[in-house]
Automatic annotation (TrEMBL):
Keywords: TPR repeat. It comes from the Eukaryota. The keyword Ribosomal protein does not apply. TPR repeats lie at residues 25-58. The lineage of its organism: Eukaryota, Sar, Alveolata, Dinophyceae, Suessiales. This is Tetratricopeptide repeat protein. Pfam families: TPR_12 (PF13424), TPR_8 (PF13181). InterPro entries: TPR-like_helical_dom_sf (IPR011990), TPR_rpt (IPR019734). The keyword Oxidoreductase does not apply.
Length: 362
């Protein structure tokens, strides 16, 4: 049903809110979710507020779900209007919902999602605080919420589920804002492992996590630690190949290979031969790719407040521009000295057409 036909739909109910308030509560909530999916957050807020009003008119207190919907919608409106101060209200509403939800001790997954929502609000609010002390307070509260969410996910789901991977990445982001890179590193690596092993792996998410890990390890002078990413990268490439993503999204896959080549070179210059091989492989994919290829970002669940991370927007790849970049990088690598053996080597399993995977050379 189109959202513009609400008045027509209301006339079909044949009951007034006074006669069937529970029905109207459900209708209001559904329309709030519809408008949320359309990014019309003003209309969504109006309907979520109606959910609260129709309950109060009948002596019923708002549900924790009402508070959560209101908080998330205020957060989205704040971001949409570039008014970050509204995130404080959003966080308060969601924390009120959390207090109500703790009376339902068995519903831990929903609590994790609410903890994540509140943590996101406070983390982004801290990014826009002019006062450094206030920013630190927001970050510390965000860490507290994200830590609880992560620990509960680990308890209920374990380390390999997508929700746990998102929690790892969110907590790592909060740690980085408080200048705690050593706490962030294993979480980002864990998030990469989750993404690379997912049933529906998202190439943009894998690329984003590789960028984050490379940036963090370079900033801390821990280039050697990048070797820990090897197994996840191998698994991710194999996963993408099994699902045909390397063929259907050739330009984006070539861009991913370029990122991996940069990571190899950052780890050790002795990896030049393998980096050059990856760049050549990327050029082969580009020869079959369309000039411009756009990928949709990974879709987080509706309960999450969507705060784009670096690289999480639509991944748009211009194949011709990428070709020039790969050719420039390849030329540089092929003309560099390659006297020492590589840390990684390409294993093709006697299949010249299959993209290589990495294995460690002792």
């Amino acid at each position: 049903m189109k959202q513009s036909r609400y008045e027509e739909y209301e006339t079909l109910i044949k009951f007034s809110p006074e006669e069937a308030w529970e029905l109207y509560d459900t209708v209001y909530r559904n329309f709030g979710w519809i408008y949320t999916s359309l990014h019309d957050y003003d209309q969504a807020l109006e309907y979520f507020e109606k959910c609260v009003s129709v309950k109060r008119d009948h002596g019923v207190s708002p549900h924790w779900f009402d508070q959560w919907d209101l908080g998330k919608t205020h957060a989205r409106l704040s971001l949409q209007r570039s008014r970050p101060e509204g995130l404080s209200l959003a966080a308060r509403l969601i924390r009120e919902a959390l207090d109500m939800h703790r009376r339902e001790p068995d519903d831990l997954i929903m609590r994790c999602k609410m903890l994540n929502s509140a943590g996101e609000c406070l983390m982004v609010r801290g990014d826009f605080c002019a006062d450094s002390g206030e920013a630190r307070r927001c970050y510390d509260e965000s860490i507290e919420l994200h830590e609880e969410s992560y620990q509960l996910y680990m308890q209920v789901l374990g380390p390999s589920k997508p929700l746990t991977g998102w929690a790892m990445e969110d907590l790592a982001g909060a740690y980085q804002r408080r200048q705690l890179p050593e706490k962030a590193k294993p979480l980002l690596l864990g998030a990469l492992r989750v993404e690379c092993s997912k049933d529906i792996i998202k190439l943009p998410s894998m690329a984003r996590l590789l960028d984050s890990l490379l940036e963090l390890h370079e900033a801390t002078g821990d280039r050697g630690g990048l070797a820990a990413c090897q197994e996840a990268i191998n698994g991710g490439l194999a996963n993408l190949q099994r699902r045909g993503v390397d063929q259907s999204e050739g330009a984006s896959y070539a861009a991913l290979l370029q990122k991996i080549a940069k990571m190899l070179l950052a780890h050790d210059v002795q990896n030049r031969p393998l980096a050059a091989e990856l760049l050549r492989e990327g050029l082969q994919y580009l020869s079959k790719a369309t000039p411009v290829q756009r990928l949709a970002p990974a879709r987080d669940e509706q309960e999450r407040i969507y705060v784009p991370k670096a690289g999480q927007q639509d991944l748009e790849v211009d194949a011709r521009a990428l070709r020039r970049s790969l050719e420039d990088d390849q030329l540089q690598e092929l003309t560099s000295a390659q006297s020492a053996p590589p840390f990684f080597e390409v294993v093709d399993d006697d299949n010249d057409d299959a993209p290589g995977t990495f294995t460690c050379v002792d």
